[in-house]
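Mods, move this if it's the wrong board.
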Amino acid sequence: MPATVLTPSVEQRLRAYHELSGRARTYPAGAPTKPTVTLSREFGCEAFPVAEELVKLAEKTTGEQWLLADISLLDAVAKEHHISSDVMLSLGHKPRWLDDMFATLSPHWKTDSDYYRLLCEQVVMIATAGNAIFVGLGAAIITQSMRNCYHFRLIAEQEFRVRSIARRMQISKQEAEIVVVDKQKEREKVIRKLLDADEQDPLYYHAIFNNGKIRNRQIAATIADVVFKRLE
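Not the wrong board. Structure tokens:
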């Protein structure tokens, strides 16, 4: 799967995922838990650059490999389970099976879906194993009750997000304005429909950063400081 302008290459991360999966299956009961970080963001904020910086800091601090998990990684995992990428990419846009998909998460949903159960199992498995950084996926909400998870969110004024998207997607500012508005509305709608939650609620997060006023490396360093000092 080729890298896109907004997401890093998935092949190396898929290998790391399988290594982590093996570790999770053999992790001894009672062993110290390893931390997991979730990054939520308004559309156009630079979560991947922050996550990549955070992976470097985490690996330097722990001396262990860390996994960056996102929709493209879980799409690759889904394909290994012979689930079409169209299913993944249409998440939140097919009402006839949305209710099925989320039956396993809430009593409000009445039916079941092998597909979404797989997706949620992967999120929870990765988070449980630790040494992972999630970008998006509603992971902050899905893993909210897990004590080894640390949740952070990136926000920014629209002008910053428009400039960032225009630069990374190599489109005009006018086109970027439309993309930012439409994608943000879509993201909020999907999270509300699928998880019955508002990801903008600040109480979900350990900290929220203004991506337009704080550099990506500084955000990553602050997150690392929060996570690893709490573990001391």
